[in-house]
Amino acid sequence: MDLLQIFPHLNATLNALSCVFLLCGFYFIMRRQIHRHRFCMLAASSVSALFLVGYLTHHAIRTYYFGLGPTKFTGEGLIRPIYFTILTSHTILAGLIGPFIIVTLRRGLKGMYDKHRRLARLVYPIWLYVSITGVVVYLLLYQIYPGR
Fold first, then answer.
1. Contact indicator for 79, 141 with CB cutoff of 8 Å
2. Residue of 29, 36, 59, 85 with fewest CB within 10 Å of its CB?
3. The pLDDT of residue 148
């Protein structure tokens, strides 16, 4: 497996790991285990940042080094509009959520707990959705309907 083929698997793993940290962070905050919650949310942020670096690196290598375009989705029939709906919502929300994650983290780390909590109630489900749909896109694109 060459370098280019490793990235999708690595990125999906990072997305899945981020999802696990997000779920654990929610579990801990519901049980008032603040330090564990903080650890999980910082870990989810770090893993998501690593994902972003891997994603951008993968696409830069594909485009500039190999001269390739985006990976083609080979599914046919009903799965095609389902895939593109998931991909579109994932892409738009992933592009928008980053600054909100940073502000939410900052508020929590600065002890602005009321503001943190209000924003986190909006940001958390979107971030979780982006993490889950990232894995779903990977499974559909590279595992269930791999290119020929």
1. no
2. 85
3. 62
